[in-house]
Here is the input.
Amino acid sequence: MAAQYEIRADYDTDTIVVYQAYAPAIADAALRAGRFVAPFSFHRMTWIKPSLPWLMHRSNWARKPGQERVLAVRMTREGWEEALSQAVLTTADPAAVAQAAVHVQWDPERSLRGAALNHYSIQVGIGRRLIRTFTDDWIVGLTDLTPQVRKAAALTRTGHAAQARRLFPAERVYPLPRSLDGLLAPGG
Here is the structure.
């Protein structure tokens, strides 16, 4: 895919980290159980994002109501790639999008200060048909990043964005299998 649409993430040989922001009740229950449990909804799409800066922008640094807690969700790369193999771009034919198990959209990546950058970040919506597979089979760990996020937000607000950046894991280009390139590329 074009560099403008590369997936950037924290990953190792077996896993990738994606991020989600939740209300405290959902985050606390998930962290206690080590996996998503009620009050997490298994009946609606859940969006995962491999870009922590984009999630910070989206959740207003964990200050948006219902998004006060930030979780790092470590999932298998096999699961990540399986989800992507079932994806339909949200800009595709509406009938195809309505039937898709997984939705993908690309939004401008964000700097720590919220400015749009010249490349895009992928958002992946896991639909109802795959939620249980995602939560029960693909997730290998959950980590609460809320304290780290709040510290980074304070540093950024006080003009110390470089220090804030050091609190986040390095995100590098994910080696996407060629079979998924055309499926995920806008206009591809």
User: Anything to note?
Assistant: The two ends are 9 Å apart (CA to CA). The first strand starts at residue 8 and ends at 11.
